[in-house]
Amino acid sequence: MSRLRTLTVEHLDCPRNYDIIFCRISANPSTAICVRSRSPQLVVPYSHQTADLEKLSVWHEPSRMTVVKLVGATSAICTTSEAPASRDNNLLTHVDLSRIQGVWVECDSGQGSLLPLLRRMTALTTLAVYTDKGAAVLERLTIVGDLDPPLCPNLSTLHLLVNEEGIHNGAHIHEFAVTRFRQGCPLLTVIVETMLTVDEEGILTSLESYVGEVRFKSVKRLSTMTLPAICSEKRHDFWDAAWT
Fold first, then answer.
1. How many CB atoms lie within 10 A of CB 54?
2. 84 and 60 Cβ atoms separated by less than 8 Å
3. The pTM is what?
4. Maximum alpha-carbon separation in the chain
5. Pairing status of strand 53-60 against strand 32-36
6. If DSSP codes are grouped into helix, strand and coil, which group holds residue 168?
7. Contact assessment for residue 76 and residue 227, using Cβ atoms and an 8 Å cutoff
8. Does an H or E element contain 162, and which?
9. Kind and range of the H or E element at 34?
10. What one-character DSSP code corresponds to residue 87?
11. Are 141 and 178 in contact (CB under 8 A)?
C-alpha cells in the first residue's frame, strides 16, 4: 500500500462500511483519495486526518450532492455526501481545521452549516465565495458577540463573484470590508471576479478606505485552488472531472 498513488471508493450504502475499509488501509498521506458516498456524512479517511491539509472547498453538484475537497502540498481528498446540512460533522471531528489557510465556497444552500467550520479556522488567510448567495457566507463571518474576537482573524484575501443577480455592484463587499476594518482585521486584498459588466469605479470608491488593494478579473471560468501534483499527472487524467 505504500506505493499506492490514487484510491477511489464509490457508493457503499452503509457509513460503517467506509470505517471498516479505511481503518484497515494504511495508505500513504500522499495518496489521492476520492470517496463518493451515499451516506449522510462526509467520509474522511483515517490515513489523511493528520496529513498536511491546508485548503478546503465546498460546492454542490447539479444532483445536489455536496462535494468537499481537502488538499495540502502532497495530500488530497475528494469526498461527497447526499446530505448538505450534515457536511460539517466529520470535518469538525476528523480534520484539524485550525490548519486550513484557504477556503473556496460554491453552494447556494446550507451556508449556516459553514459557521461551525469557520469558527475553527483560526489560520484562514484566503476566502473565495462563488455563489449568488455569497452575502450569506460573508454575513456569518461577521456574526460575533460584543466580547468575542472576530472569526478568522488572519483573513486577508477575499475572492468574490460579483454579478447583477447576486452581490450587485459590490454592496455586500463594502459592508463586509467595513465590518472587518472596524473589528481590527482589515482585508488586504479583494479580488472581484465577474462574467458580466460591473461598476468597477463604484466598487473601488466604496472600498478604497477599508481595503489595501482591489483587483478586478473578467473571467470565463472562476479561479480554483491549487491541487497537489498527483491530481494532474498525466497517468491520473481521470481526476480532472472529480477535482474541478
1. 17
2. yes
3. 0.81
4. 57
5. unpaired
6. helix
7. yes
8. none
9. strand 32-36
10. T
11. no
Please state, in angstroms and as integers, the Cα–Cα distance from residue 228 to each residue in 77, 125, 136, 243, following that order: 11, 19, 30, 11
Question: How many of the other CB atoms lie within 10 Å of CB of 169?
Answer: 16
Q: Quick one: CA torsion of 176, 177, 179, 180, rounded to 10 degrees?
A: 110
Distance between CA 31 and CA 45 in Å, rounded?
Answer: 11
Burial class (CB in 10 A: 0-12, 13-18, 19+), 180: buried
Residue with the three cell numbers 465590518: 179
Residues 6+ away with beta carbon under 8 Å from 118: 103, 124, 140, 141, 151, 152
Nearest to 91 by CA among 38, 63, 64, 53: 53
SS3 163: coil
Q: Where are the alpha helices (DSSP H) in the chain?
A: 15-22, 88-94, 115-120, 134-141, 171-182, 200-207, 239-243
Residue 202 in grid coordinates: 463604484
Quickly tell me which residue has 505504500 as its cell.
2
CA dihedral 51, 15, 67, 74 (to 10 degrees): 20
Convert the pLDDT of each residue in 230-243 to its tens digit: 665 544 444 444 44
Bridge-based pairing state of the strands 32-36 and 6-10: parallel
CA distance 51 to 70: 10
Tell me the three state secondary structure of residue 171: helix
Nearest-Å Rg of the Cα atoms of the chain is 19
Q: Stretch 155-163: mean pLDDT, rounded? A: 84
C-alpha cell at 177: 470590508
Looking up cell 496529513 gives 51
Identify the pLDDT of residue 238: 42
